[in-house]
Specification:
By secondary structure, the protein is α/β, with parallel strands linked by helices. It has a single domain (4-201), classed as Rossmann fold (3-Layer(aba) Sandwich). Helices cover 27% and strands 18% of the residues. It has 4 helices and 6 strands. Strands 3-2-4-1-5-6 form a 6-stranded mixed sheet, sandwiched between helices. The radius of gyration is 17 Å and the shape is globular. The mean pLDDT is 92. This is Broad specificity phosphatase PhoE.
């Protein structure tokens, strides 16, 4: 007999960011009104599931996304630095195709395979794998939810699917309040699923990658 355990990676909802900057790990970036509604829809998607553990990145937008699910399940939200957004030397800047032509940024952009402008992809994978294993052990035979950010979730998925880590940020399948689900039989990964519980609230404006 095998034991089935599911670890869900939930991306946070939309952030109030009128300045349009790459906020990265900066403090005091909270969910917008629309983002709070996304968090509610995500919590409803988990209704009826056997959630045994709830972990979150310490950043405000992730914690706020976890709150409706915590209220629905009665679970405490455990903050885990391994789920935090990727470090990025460009945070605090307005990032666009035009801004990336600024010579002052060139020294950060020489190696897209690492990437040279931020936390190495392999380091992100290592910390995400650690927290997924921890959550799987804690929720053994049941389900766990880890609230994180776009790039860490995407790196975890690429590693799970044994795909290369370098990629085009605009091709990540990890939308706001989306759920990437890793299903294990004992310790063996058997499937990767993806769903968008808050798709009805998506607007037409592009979302900054790495948010």
């Amino acid at each position: 007999m095998t034991t089935t355990t599911v670890v869900h990676l939930l991306r946070h909802g939309e952030v109030h960011n009128p300045g349009g900057i790459l906020y990265g790990r900066l403090p005091d970036f909270h969910l917008s009104e629309n983002g709070a509604a996304m968090a509610d829809l995500a919590a409803k998607w988990f209704a009826g599931r056997d959630i045994a553990a709830l972990h979150s990145s310490p950043l405000e937008r992730a914690r706020e996304t976890a709150e409706p699910l915590a209220a629905a399940t009665g679970l405490d939200v455990r903050l885990d630095d391994r789920l935090i957004e990727a470090a990025n030397r460009l945070e605090g800047r307005h990032v666009s195709a035009r801004s990336l032509r600024d010579p002052a940024l060139f020294r950060h952009l020489y190696n897209p395979f690492q990437p040279s402008w931020g936390e190495p992809y392999r380091r992100i994978v290592d910390r995400m794998v650690d927290v997924i294993k921890h959550a799987r052990k804690e929720a053994w035979g049941r389900e766990a939810v880890c609230v994180s950010h776009q790039l860490p979730i995407w790196m975890a998925r690429m590693a799970a699917e044994r795909k290369r880590l370098w990629h085009r940020p605009d091709r990540r399948q990890c939308n706001l309040a989306s759920v990437t689900s890793l299903t294990f039989e004992d310790q063996r990964l058997v499937s990767v699923g993806y769903t968008e519980p808050a798709a009805e609230l998506y607007g037409s404006d592009p979302v900054l990658p790495g948010a």
